[in-house]
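pasting for the record
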Amino acid sequence: MATPHTIKPTSALSPQYVTGLYIPSALLLVGVAIAKKEWLPFAVVIAALLGGYKFYSNQSRKILKPDAYQAFPLKEKTVLSHNVAIYRFSLPRPNDILGLPIGQHMSVAAAIEGQPTEVVRSYTPISSDENPGYVDLLIKSYPTGNISKHVSKLNIGDTLKIKGPKGAMVYTPGMVRRFGMIAGGTGITPMLQIILAIIRGRPRNGGKDTTEIDLIFANVNFEDILLKDDLDTLAKEDEGFRVHYVLNNPPEKWDGGVGFCTPQMIKEKLPAPAKDIKVLICGPPPMVSAMKKATDSLGYEKPRPVSKLQDQVFCF
């Protein structure tokens, strides 16, 4: 994943306030008291004004608008392979956040040559509101993909139109005892968003989230596995998260699954049907259709054509 930077202040004792407000204000007051004590009341006023400005400028604003597109400039591009990259778009201020609930996604629009109207596609960021000032999109450029090809040709400083939030899924801690996830290709992005939120909320990190996660991640070739190092690190560090890879064309000495994701794989790797579990599915349409049939055959509640938050099998 692209390297994160600014972290928003979380309390009055956050480092941003200590180094950017308290220490400079104290130095100002002490310096004035030593140099010219009668100026001290003015120094107090100046320190208070600077403090108010610093506090205000460090407040996070939710930037996304559900009914209006906004243009965000491309700040950075991290190339992962010949057709995959992480695109980082800047928000207006360093402490701004998208305001995107965990599990939801955004609409991206662009005018494409040869198309009568703007083309719109949905994307889930791999960044979150925990990292203000930017939004990261993991995008695979397809030969026939209008938006993905458009984004791949953007130069630093070019803008992309985004609006949101969208979607029926909103994750909250304790929603279920255990998640089963089936992802194909870039369908990993909404899964990763939820996985990271759960791990951030673990008791060892000061939270109460004990949700178990089992992920089946299916791809064609080994090099198609997006963010594999990051997923492996998360699985190694968090005993409540397990990932099982499936490849159509595996390399030699491959110890993961082979072929397509089958009902047998789902039965072996994901939680059995129960009232306190949920299966999440995201990937290419043919895969999603096949996984709906597979889960139905295994006794999970029949997926709806359009998923709702309360569904046992939820398709993004």
